[in-house]
Protein: Transmembrane protein 18
Organism: Echeneis naucrates
Amino acid sequence: MTDLKAKNISSIPIDGFSHIRITSIWTFLMSVQWSEPWLLGLLVFHVVCLCLTVVTCRFYRAQICHFLFMVGMVYSAEYLNELAAMNWRSFSHFQYFDSKGMFISLVYSIPLLLNTVIIVIVWVYRTFSTMTELKTLQLKRRARREKREKSE
């Protein structure tokens, strides 16, 4: 039993930078060297995208463009991962870009998808609000019409 457990532990990858055993997404993210300039730039990019998501809530057409831009970027993540895997030495100290795309999914695609989910939630809320207003106006119009019919 202990041999099996030892084999399982030894098969868990150890990060080359921090020597942490990678057993979960959290330990994987903790093993990333976040002080690299390109990762800081990516973090700033995600903050800007979140700010644009909030600001464009009042501007429907701008929000549609922002939404489509982010969805397009998520769609291109696989190609970006391949490009980054081939050229990682030119901008990074470590090879983060695996063939399965776990790193790019966690640090690039998921934040963009969270922004798109926020936008969809705003759209659903607006749709329900508009439907409620419309139904209220219909009921008021019906009440006025019935009141006129009774007075005649």
Q: What stands out?
A: The mean pLDDT is 85. Helices lie at 2-11, 25-30, 37-55, 60-75, 77-87, 102-151.
